């Protein structure tokens, strides 16, 4: 008889007992599956938690980083008068130096020069009717500030103009253009 | 959840859950909770145990002993009478009376009873039972035989040679 063999009478008892079935399990399968799902979700969420934390830290690090210092302005290409002449939309006109004009520098004199320049451009044949008249800002000063000041002064001057002023020249009016050119073109 | 784990859990529920509950009943009165906890623990294992059924019996044993101690402290004076009748399904035909079998089983010493349940209804071999209860396989076999003998006398199983009850 081998080690694991039983006496015959015990074999019969064994078979009889095996005929009994244990009472059916009372495990709630739904509850078990919910627990398993929760456990699985808790395990699967861990990498996402780490990734989110890392992204948040990176965003914070980038957000609170001091702003880079403004770079030192290196040699810049400054527009030379020749280049400015070729720039589109710029009316290059020669402004005659009026006597004492340097002393009268200011918004009013600039306005006067602007009003004076367009006939000369017209006479020289370089007037571009499709573009608005522009006044070249003085180089070396703040261009934007100068431009805004000019606009403000121009508006002010418009308001101060008398109502009896001569009607504005319209480019489409050929007759008026001819007369104006003849009358207003200074001797070059 | 991984597909392999889900299949294993389904297999355990279909084939072993009832036997595991019967096994856990040796120590506690709420075996279904113990078995459920053991199945959840099994699903958490990475990698899965090589012998998951044996692993489950170990986990159920530990959990049932722990639960039994807690129950004992909580319900020290509660009567345990009448609980054994629910251990087995009602017997059919010539099968042994389920109530008598449960009562006879409950009167066995714990070390014989757990070996009997693990072998008869759990399907473990004596080597696995030895690992489970902490003894050698031959010791497990001896406990098994020692547990069957009083059951035979108590339940009056007919002797196959003489075709008459032993006693």
Write the layout of secondary structure elements.
The complex is a heterodimer of chains A (188) and B (167).
Chain A: H1 8-18, H2 29-63, H3 81-86, H4 107-124, H5 143-160, H6 174-184
Chain B: H1 3-15, H2 17-24, H3 31-44, H4 52-74, H5 98-106, H6 110-120, H7 126-133, H8 137-155, E1 158-159, E2 164-165
Antiparallel strand pairs in B: 1-2
Helix pairs in contact in B: 2-3, 2-4, 3-4, 4-7, 5-8, 6-8, 7-8
Shape estimate of chain B: globular
The average pLDDT of chain A is 68
Q: From the helix content, strand content and strand pairing of chain A, which structural class follows?
A: mainly alpha
Under the CATH scheme, which class of the largest domain in chain B?
A: Mainly Alpha
What is the overall number of helices of chain A? 6
The Rg value of chain A, from CA coordinates, equals: 47 Å
Beta fraction of chain B: under 5%
For the record, give the distance between the C-alpha atoms at the N and C termini of chain B, rounded to a whole number. Answer: 55 Å
**Strand order of the main beta sheet of chain B, please?**
1-2
The CATH architecture category of the largest domain in chain B equals: Orthogonal Bundle
- Into which percentage range does the β-strand content of chain A fall? under 5%
Largest sheet of chain A: none
* Largest interface chains and counts: A-B, 31 and 47 residues
CATH fold type of the largest domain in chain B: Arc Repressor Mutant, subunit A
Count of alpha and pi helical runs of chain B: 8
Largest sheet of chain B: 2 strands, antiparallel
Q: What is the residue-mean pLDDT of chain B, rounded to a whole number? A: 83
User: How many strand segments of chain B?
Assistant: 2
Give keywords.
heterodimer, A: mainly alpha, 6 helices, B: 167 residues, two-stranded antiparallel sheet, 2 strands, disordered C terminus
Structure characterization notes:
The complex is a heterodimer of chains A (188) and B (167). Chain A is mainly α and 188 residues long. Helices cover 53% and strands 0% of the residues of chain A. Chain A has a domain of 104 residues. In chain A, helix 4 packs across helix 5. The longest helix of chain A has 35 residues. Chain A is rod-shaped. Chain B has 167 residues and is mostly helical. The C terminus of chain B is likely disordered. In chain B, helix 2 runs parallel beside helix 4. A two-stranded antiparallel ribbon of chain B has the order 1-2. The longest helix of chain B is centred in the middle third of the chain and has 23 residues. At the A-B interface, helix 1 and helix 2 of A face helix 1, helix 2, helix 3, helix 8 and strand 1 of B.
């Amino acid at each position: 008889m081998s080690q694991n063999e039983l006496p015959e009478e015990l074999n019969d008892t064994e078979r009889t007992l095996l005929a009994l079935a244990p009472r059916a399990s009372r495990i709630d399968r739904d509850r078990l599956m919910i627990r398993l799902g929760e456990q699985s979700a808790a395990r699967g969420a861990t990498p996402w938690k780490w990734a989110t934390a890392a992204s948040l830290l990176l965003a914070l690090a980038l957000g609170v980083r001091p702003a880079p210092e403004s770079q030192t302005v290196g040699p810049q290409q400054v527009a030379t008068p020749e280049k400015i002449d070729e720039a589109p939309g710029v009316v290059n006109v020669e402004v005659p130096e009026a006597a004492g004009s340097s002393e009268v520098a200011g918004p009013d004199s600039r306005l006067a020069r602007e009003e004076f320049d367009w006939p000369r451009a017209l006479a020289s044949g370089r007037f571009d009717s499709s573009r608005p008249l522009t006044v070249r800002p003085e180089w070396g000063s703040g261009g934007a500030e100068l431009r805004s000041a000019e606009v403000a002064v121009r508006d002010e001057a418009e308001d101060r103009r008398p109502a009896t002023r001569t009607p504005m020249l319209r480019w489409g009016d050929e007759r008026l253009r001819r007369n104006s050119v003849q009358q207003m073109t200074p001797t070059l | 959840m991984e597909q392999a784990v889900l299949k294993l859990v389904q297999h355990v529920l279909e084939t072993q859950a009832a036997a595991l509950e019967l096994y856990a009943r040796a120590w506690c009165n709420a075996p279904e909770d113990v078995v459920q906890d053991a199945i959840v623990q099994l699903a958490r294992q990475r990698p899965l145990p090589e012998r998951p059924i044996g692993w489950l019996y170990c986990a159920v044993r530990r959990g049932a002993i722990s639960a039994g101690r807690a129950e004992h402290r909580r319900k020290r004076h509660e009567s345990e009478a009448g609980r054994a009748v629910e251990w087995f399904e009602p017997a059919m035909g010539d099968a042994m009376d389920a109530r008598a079998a449960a009562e006879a089983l409950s009167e066995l010493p714990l070390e014989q009873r757990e070996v009997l349940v693990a072998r008869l209804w759990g399907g473990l071999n004596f080597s696995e039972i030895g690992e489970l209860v902490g003894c050698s396989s031959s010791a497990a076999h001896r406990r098994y035989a020692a547990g069957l003998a009083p059951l035979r006398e108590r339940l009056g199983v007919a002797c196959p040679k003489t075709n008459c009850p032993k006693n």
